[in-house]
Amino acid sequence: MLLRDIMTANVEVISPYTPLQEAADKMRVFDTGSLPICDGKKVLGMLTDRDIVIRAVAKGLHPDQTMVSDVMTEEVVYLFEDQDVSEAARLMEDRQIRRLLVLNRDKELVGIVSLGDLSQYTDHKIAGHVLEQVSEPGSRVVL
């Protein structure tokens, strides 16, 4: 099965020049913890709720004066829409991530695949294994 067959299309995106306050509100409205950062269809990065907390709030940056581009994660993990679902599962395991951007061969955003999509459209053993690997605790222990 190909990623285009299970991906969620029409992904909500945000501009890199959007204030964090607006981005956080968009996350609230759409009940999501991440938003792709795009200039048109070109993906520039990802903004996660963790980016907002660690890179902005923890540093005392003002959410109305800080732009998404100031705190976004520039390294984006993606696959192409014509790649197999098993490749998504493997990449999610390796990178310990719960969602992947899906691009066309022109590297334009066409969708997103989540761990939930894998569990809905693939063998439950595959999704369960990916979840186990993604949820593996890090090596740092904080007391």
Strand order of the largest sheet: 3-4-5
CATH topology: CBS-domain
Instruction: Give the % helix.
Output: 25-40%
Given this structure, which CATH class is correct? Alpha Beta
Helix/strand order, N-terminal first: HHEEHHEHEEHH
Q: What is the approximate shape?
A: elongated
Ends distance: 44 Å
How many domains? The number is 1
What is the annotated CATH architecture? Roll
Mean pLDDT: 87
Number of strands: 5
β-strand percent reads 15-25%
What is the fourth-level CATH superfamily?
CBS-domain
What would you report as the Rg, rounded to the nearest angstrom? Answer: 16 Å
Question: Residue ranges: pLDDT <50 for 5 or more in a row?
Answer: none
Number of helical elements: 7
* Backbone structural class: alpha+beta
Major sheet attributes: 3 strands, mixed
Please provide a written account of the structure:
With 143 residues, the chain is α+β, with helices and mostly antiparallel strands. It has a single domain, classed as Roll (CBS-domain). Helices cover 38% and strands 19% of the residues. It is built from seven helices and five strands; from the N terminus they run ααββααβαββαα. The strands form two sheets. A three-stranded mixed sheet has the order 3-4-5. A two-stranded antiparallel ribbon has the order 1-2. A hairpin with a 2-residue loop joins strand 1 and strand 2. The longest helix is centred in the N-terminal third of the chain and has 11 residues. The radius of gyration is 16 Å and the shape is elongated. The termini are far apart. The model has no long low-confidence stretch (mean pLDDT 87).
